[in-house]
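name: query_chain
kind: protein
chains: 1
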Amino acid sequence: MNLASIISYLTLVDNLLTVWSKSVHKYILEKKSHNFTDIIDFCVYACIVREQLLKTADASTSDVSGLHAKLDRKRNVESHNASVQEKFRDSFHNGIDVLTSHVEHFVIQQEQFSSSLCNSFG
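structure:
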């Protein structure tokens, strides 16, 4: 679920709460309740519920945003690690190639030196 769909969902919840508030208010009026305290209590309750739901939705959105940020950081670290591993592997193979070349050159020099000694002494 991406951030846009969460925001869309939260907007829908807000609209549903508004419709619910209006329908309950209509119910109170149809009941011919002239008790002003009941109406005020209902409005206060509806506002509290609405605010709690919006706070929960904001916290959820923040949590999802944080999760996406964490996943982005994880992907960046994994990409960087893969790049470093590839550079190390290339450097290691290059170093092994240079070492092999040096050993081969040393072997040739030793063979030449050995041959030279054999020819000198006879």
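note: Residues 3-121 form one domain.
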